Structure formats: C-alpha cells, structure tokens
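Severity: low
Component: inverse-folding endpoint
Summary: output formatting inconsistent between runs
Steps to reproduce: submit the following structure tokens with default settings.
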C-alpha cells in the first residue's frame, strides 16, 4: 500500500496525499487499494536527463514529441501515412501477418506488422478472430480497462493567482506555476472519498486535480499574457449511475465542479477562462482509441503487469499471429512517456526479421 510506504518517509499529511496521487494516477483505485503502491513506484522510478524521478514538459506541446519521432523515422527511410485508418491485419495462407488493409481498401504489404494500438483494438478488432486461440481472446476481453480520468484543457486570459502564493505585480510566472499543482489533496482520505463516489457511478464531488500550466515554461503555446492550463482530473466513471449518458450537460456539470474547486484555491480563475475542452473516459476512448479511456491501455495492477501483460505467455511482444507484434502501452512495461515497450518490441521484431 502506498500509505505504508509514504508513512515510513514522511509525517506531513498534505505531502503524503500529494505524493499518493501518483499511486492512483490513471487508475480506478484508491491509495488504500492493495497493489496501488506499484503505480506510485512506476511513476517515480524513471529519470529525465540524469535526474531521477523528474518529469518534464515537451517544448511545443506533447504533439512535438510525436513529430520528433516521426522525423527520426523518416530520416531512416520510413513512410508515414496520417489519417489513414487501418481496417484489419492482412494474413497469408500460412497465417502470418503480411501487412494491413486500410479502410479505403488499400493493401499495405510488409513482412512484419507492429501495432501500438491497444491490445483490445489490435486483437479484437483488427485481427481475424479465427486466427487467435480462444483462451487468448478471452484473456484480452477480460483485461481491466476501467479509467477514472477526465482531461480538461483550458485557455485563460491571465495567469492563475493562488491564495497560498499570490502572483507578483508584473504577472510573470513564479516557480510554482512551472510545476504540477495538486489540488484537493490535503489528506489521503479525500482521495479515497473521491474514489468511493466514482465506484457508485457518480463523478467525484471534490475531484483530485493535477493542474499544469505548460505555457509558463513554453510561452509559444499561448498569446502574450494568456496561458493554457491542463487539468488531469479524477474520478469520473466510464458509465454513470443509472446508465445516464456522458452528454454535454453531464460533461459541463462535472467541469463546473472542477472549476469551482480551483476557484477556492485561486479566486478569479473562472472569470479568466476563455475556452475549455472536456474529455471524459468515453471521449478519450472515441478520439484516441484508449480502451475505457484508460491512458495505459489497461490497468497497471499487479495481475496485469510483467509476464501477464497483455496476457500470460505473450509478454514478449510476439502475438499468437506470427509476424504481428504489440508495441504500445498494453505491452510490458506499461504506460508512461518512455518508449520502452516500443524499443523492446522493435528489438524482438528485428531479431525475427533476421531469420525470415
């Protein structure tokens, strides 16, 4: 349990609760849920430019990272086709992957196919089911993909000023504006209460909020004096109580709750809002292909990690279909902006390619 780990190191309840958010980030779990301590360790075990446990902003926004990867691939001769949806994986008579078929009917032939789509999309939608073992299909269907995350992107016309650390007169960003700001995290029991509400199908009345202002470090993201604010919030169930839909009314009601909370810490925040984009779990699934809206392509619980990710006997990136590999977050070691799954899968695929 993360509480036991944090109790060994810290006395301050607000500090412990703030650190405990990394134990539940993206997970339909509470800091009191057994196994959530691993999620905490997963988020602090990495490093950035030699600094252990550090995180960073990508200059130009997260899309700039994708563009950098694309440029590196193109420099090695890769051809990239955007906005070309894949319909299914093309199989030969011997059952090997031979490429993919696009939705417009175009066939793209290749000796190997690597998918960084989720295991659910890769194996349940894109791969002919008769080519997969029934127990494997059942295992993929049973992966826990519950997600508590609603992401809200906000444009504001001035820098938020927090009661705990008011802005300077010149309105320039202060050190705390350049970090992750955690709200509603004064005590671990508040996180548990927020989780408990979601387990009954109700969005948290006092959500856990991680607020970042990337434009405080990267001014090119917004016009002068204005800022973009990224809100990573939970807990919001994928399916609301009583089967109610996540319609515009439900989206806005939850976002209003989040903004009311921020207003308590930073009066004037709501008046500064120019626009907002609300992405509930169903939106994250529909737009980004995240199963259940899960940012990790599946829960990071101990029964879905290491040799069991995405399924027992298939953690080595090879799938039941020869020549088809899984290289996204649904493969070992799971989620996070690190590229480990892709690098590992590429090495396995390259090894097989040499023996073709």
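Observed output (run 2 of 3):
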């Amino acid at each position: 349990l993360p509480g036991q780990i944090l109790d060994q190191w810290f006395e301050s309840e607000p500090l412990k609760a703030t650190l405990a958010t990394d134990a539940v980030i993206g997970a339909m779990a509470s800091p009191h849920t057994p196994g959530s301590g691993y999620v905490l360790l997963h988020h602090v075990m990495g490093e950035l430019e030699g600094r252990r446990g550090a995180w960073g902003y990508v200059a130009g926004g997260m899309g700039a990272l994708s563009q950098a990867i694309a440029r590196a691939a193109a420099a090695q001769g890769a051809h990239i086709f955007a906005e070309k949806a894949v319909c299914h994986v093309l199989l030969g008579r011997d059952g090997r992957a031979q490429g993919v078929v696009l939705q417009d009917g175009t066939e793209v032939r290749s000796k190997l196919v690597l998918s960084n789509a989720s295991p659910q999309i890769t194996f349940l939608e894109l791969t002919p089911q008769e080519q997969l073992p029934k127990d494997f299909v059942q295992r993929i269907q049973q992966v826990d993909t519950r997600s508590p995350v609603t992401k809200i992107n906000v444009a504001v016309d001035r820098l938020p000023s927090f009661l705990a650390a008011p802005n300077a007169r010149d309105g320039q960003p202060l050190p705390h504006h350049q970090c992750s700001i955690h709200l509603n995290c004064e005590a671990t029991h508040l996180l548990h209460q927020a989780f408990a509400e979601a387990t009954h199908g109700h969005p948290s009345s006092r959500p856990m909020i991680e607020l970042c202002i990337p434009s405080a470090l990267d001014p090119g993201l917004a016009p002068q004096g204005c800022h973009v604010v990224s809100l990573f919030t939970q807990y919001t169930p994928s399916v609301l109580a009583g089967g109610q839909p996540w319609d515009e009314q439900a989206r806005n009601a939850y976002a209003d709750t989040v903004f009311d909370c921020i207003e308590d810490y930073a009066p004037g925040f709501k008046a500064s809002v120019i626009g907002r984009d609300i992405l509930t779990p169903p939106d994250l699934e529909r737009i980004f292909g995240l199963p259940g809206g899960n940012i990790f392509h599946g829960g990071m619980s101990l029964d879905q990690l290491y040799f069991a990710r995405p399924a027992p006997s298939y953690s080595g990136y090879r799938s039941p279909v020869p020549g088809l590999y899984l290289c996204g977050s649904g493969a070992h070691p799971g989620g996070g902006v690190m590229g480990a799954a892709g690098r590992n899968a590429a090495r396995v695929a390259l090894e097989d390619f040499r023996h073709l």
